[in-house]
Amino acid sequence: MRLEFPSRLGHHSKTMRILLSNDDGIYAPGIHALHDAVKDLGEIHVVAPDGERSAISHGITLTKPLHARSWPPGGPHFGTAVSGTPADCVKLAISLLIDPPPDLILSGINLGPNAGISVLYSGTVSAATEGPIMGIPSMALSLDTFSEPNWDTAARVSRALVEQVVSGQLRIAPDIFWNVNIPNLPYEKLAGLRITRMGSSRFVEKYERREDPWGNPYYWMTGELYEKGDVNGTDLEALRQGYVSLSPIGLDHTEHAAIEVLAARPPQLPK
What we know:
By secondary structure, the protein is α/β, with parallel strands linked by helices. Helices cover 26% and strands 28% of the residues. It has a single domain (17-199, 230-264), classed as Survival protein SurE-like phosphatase/nucleotidase (Stationary-phase Survival Protein Sure Homolog, Chain: A). It contains 7 helices and 11 strands. The strands form 2 sheets. Strands 3-4-2-1-5-6-7-11-8 form a 9-stranded mixed beta sheet, sandwiched between helices. A two-stranded antiparallel ribbon has the order 9-10. The longest helix is centred in the middle third of the chain and has 17 residues, at 151-167.
């Protein structure tokens, strides 16, 4: 099946600039797997956090300066490590570090899925969300595991999608990004690719209480993800069935159906 989404990205005769970022940190295996997978498809720029920033959502840094340094220190340049959040990295890259700005933003490859409600918490997804905010096509790429990751599968899927975008076969609308989740399976065991919607789920938190050597309490969050409602056609269902999930995600969080309901009987303010 061929997907068509209107975009400013078509076939480029010039070399395409591609920005890579993530929330696992510039040293994480996922971003290196992604870099190796797409490095011959354009002019690659890596701007990523200098440490782990998972589940930081769309936070940005306002109350302290950002530091940006070549990484690794003293070694061949791989990218720029930034002291801020994933969104900071993309904003700084587009505003200052990459001139002209990138033509495509890739965020990942994340260790762990970003499906269902995780979309709202994910730093990986938030880096990709900066794309439609700034009118640049973007993808978030995540691998559905927290242990024994099959980076080869994730890299092959990522390259296949990026190749089709770079060539103009597939197009990403300027007001959305693609949220891609990849099963942790050998490539030949993948069931295929599905176009999905964001599943409804909830992370039910549990907090473990512990004490430091001085008797002061502290807490570690644990918990489980539970699916809710109709799962047909969702990213969660696709992953469970061995399919790569591609969900087009927009910036407008308005529940449009509720507008008519509320307008028919709107809340009243006292006179």
